[in-house]
Amino acid sequence: MSIVVSYLDSRLISKRGPKAGCCAPGLGTEAAMRSTAKRATKVQTTVRLPKPLYDKAKQLIRRGEVRVGSVNELMIESLQSRIRAVERQHIDAQFASMSEDRHYQRQAERVTEEFEPSDWEALQER
After folding, report:
1. Using CA atoms, how far apart are residues 60 and 5, in angstroms rounded to an integer?
2. Which of helix, strand or coil describes residue 126?
3. Which of helix, strand or coil describes residue 109?
4. 45 in the Ramachandran plot: left (φ > 0), alpha (ψ -120 to 50) or beta?
5. Alpha carbons 35 and 8: distance in angstroms, whole number
6. Number of H helices, E strands in the chain
7. What is the DSSP letter of 12?
8. pLDDT tens track for 79-101
9. What torsion do the CA atoms of 63, 65, 69, 72 make, to the nearest 10 degrees?
10. Which residue among 47, 75, 82, 112 is the one 20 to 30 A from 67 at the CA level?
11. Highest mean pLDDT: which of 6-10, 18-22, 100-104?
């Protein structure tokens, strides 16, 4: 099963102004350009999904078990979630490497020592 994932391309507005029909009635060229510039450029792609996965996604959407209105939205949210998880793993790995970095450890100790008097004062004020 193939699904075509469609997106709006923000290039609808050229240097001459918006193309006919791309803007809400009464929306001026400048406002339309600002509005469109805020949107991320999106692409259209085709995704091939196993039929059981597609059917399960549709079923979840129909039953309201996910807060999206379409398989397209579910795929976008799922990809965003996975990307955030991978980015968190990268950040966690960087923090883990800091525990073995002698230069960082010395620097952290110096900062702790420098702030020790003010930390002690703040603790006493409680």
Report:
1. 18
2. coil
3. helix
4. beta
5. 13
6. 4, 4
7. G
8. 999 999 999 999 999 989 888 89
9. -110
10. 47
11. 100-104
Task: Tell me the C-alpha distance between 30 and 13, whole Å.
Answer: 10
- 3-class DSSP assignment, residue 86: helix
Q: Binning pLDDT at 50, 70 and 90, where does residue 1 land?
A: low
Residue with structure tokens 């609808």? 12
**Cα torsion through 11, 12, 17, 18, rounded to 10:** -160
Residue 116, token pair as written in the block: 């020790």
Residue 50's SS3 state is coil
Q: Residue 55 and residue 97: Cα distance in Å, rounded? A: 43
**Are the C-beta atoms of 22 and 11 separated by less than 8 Å?**
no
Tokens of 110: 């110096």
With tokens 């939205």, the residue in question is 73
**Residues in contact with 32: Cβ distance below 8 Å, sequence separation at least 6, in sequence order:** 13, 17, 18, 22, 23
Cβ-based neighbour number of residue 23 at 10 Å: 19
